[in-house]
Amino acid sequence: MMASAGKSLRLMVDHWLGPAPGTQVHVTAFRTRRSTVQRYVCVETLKAAGPVAMFFFRHRDGTWCIYPPAGERPMFPMFDWS
Q1: How many other C-beta atoms lie within 10 A of the C-beta of residue 23?
Q2: Are 17 and 28 within 8 A, CB to CB?
Q3: Where would I find the beta strands (DSSP E) of the chain?
Q4: Which SS3 state, helix, strand or coil, does residue 58 take?
């Protein structure tokens, strides 16, 4: 697991996007689906080179990461091949 995982979303945004003090960060997209436990936000800030956006994903254990949670692997029934 990443060293920065488990921190608040704000700390993750500060770590990865490093906005300058006084620079605004905007949530430009989000998704929350409790039925499938899919949660993410897209945040954007302005850097000298232009706007920068990044997605952050909420994992089942409550951590925020820059990569999506691993999908549920399908379970196949056991077959009797005899």
Answers
A1: 11
A2: no
A3: 25-33, 38-47, 50-58, 64-65
A4: strand
